[in-house]
Structure formats: structure tokens, C-alpha cells
Amino acid sequence: MLRNAGNVFLFCLANRVLPLDLIDRKSLEIREADEEVYTTLEDIADALPENTPRYVVLSHPVTLKSGRFSTPYVLLYYMPENSNNELRMLYAGAKELMRNTAEVGKVMEVQDEDGVIAIRDALVDA
User: Fold this and answer.
1) Positive or negative CA dihedral for 82, 84, 85, 90?
2) Alpha carbon distance 122, 34 (integer Å)
């Protein structure tokens, strides 16, 4: 599990996703939010709060338009439009740290549940 100063991590290996983590606003450390295991993008979308930013690190298997199988490693930067400014600044400031620490190939920004679910199509088109 990554422990630095971001927000929510979600590790998805093949079709399995490990627990969400969240930022402790006092210590600026990441801790587990729950022990739930997520297996689909829909489950991830349902688990994300409506007004709090999160980071989601996942590796989701897709079949590319060329027919080739791929499992890209990406950071979802979940930033709902109705997040308060303090949290927006906290998450924005740690985005590059999260990207570098997680060593992801791509950062994809989403603002709502539909955006999380649409990631599957964005990964196929990438």
C-alpha cells in the first residue's frame, strides 16, 4: 500500500481492487477508509463520495480496438464539482506526488460517477 500524502488509492490488479484509502486531514497521511474489495468500475463509482476528491490507482484490463489485450496502470483524479476549496487545493497539490509515487502511466481526471464508469472506454481509445 502506498503511504505518502495523497488521498484515496485503489489498487486494481486484473479484476480485483483492494481497499480504498483516504487522507487524514490532520496528519496528511493516507489511511484505509474501509476493507471493502471492489471488483468493477461501477462499484468504485458507487463508493466514491459526492463532494470529496479522491485518488484511485487502478489497473483495469481492456481489449484495445486493435484486438490486443492491455492492462494500463492509471491514476484517476476524482474531483467533484461541488468539493470545497480547501480539499480541492489539498488534492491538487498532491496530484503530481501521487503520480510519481504510484508510478502510473497516465492521470485521468473525472468529476462524477459517470466519468468513472466511462474510464473503460477512455482506456480502450488511449
Assistant:
1) negative
2) 28
Whole-number Å distance between alpha carbons of 94 and 22: 13
Using a 10 angstrom Cβ sphere, with 0-12 exposed, 13-18 middle and 19 or more buried, the burial of residue 61 is middle
Of the ranges 23-27, 111-115, 121-125, the best mean pLDDT one: 111-115
Q: Which three cell numbers stand for residue 122?
A: 477512455
3-state secondary structure at position 30: strand
The string of pLDDT tens digits covering residues 61-116 is: 888 888 888 888 888 888 999 998 988 888 888 888 888 888 888 899 999 999 98
CA distances from 6 to 46, 56, 67, 76 (A): 20, 10, 35, 12
Q: Which residues contact 16 (CB under 8 A, 6 or more apart)?
A: 37, 39
Is 94 in contact with 126 (CB distance < 8 Å)?
Answer: no
Written as nine digits, the cell of 59 is: 489497473
Q: Which domains does the chain have, with CATH numbers?
A: 1-22+41-103 (3.40.20.10)
CA dist 117 and 94 (Å) reads 24
